[in-house]
Amino acid sequence: MIVKVGESLEKTFIVKPEHSASAVSSGAVNVLSTPIMIAFMEDVSFTLAQKYLEKGKTTVGYHVDVKHLAPAPIGSEVRVKSTLIEINGKKLKFKVEAYYKDKKIGEGIHERVIVDTDEFMKRVNE
What we know:
The chain is an alpha+beta fold. The chain is 21% helix and 44% strand.
């Protein structure tokens, strides 16, 4: 693995009706839900890590500690940034942030663990 602390990646997502708090039963309003915002953050962190892993390796989510600071409406564009802030053996720690327009709507920490895909799935299926 050649990834270095400080590497970052940004992706944008469109908030669809199925991403709303109402749709995923995390609330009763039609705005970006916290679970989907976290999923966006995991997506960007996964994509960043995967760019640097050798064939047969992947990462799995291990820990999430996120604050959802403000809403984003259905149809809006949300920008999510993930920055690798620590490597500890097979554990990767990311600072994650989400923005609607220029307003920060979410922030926190996400950790992923590097695994061998075949070995991981073998354990799952045992």
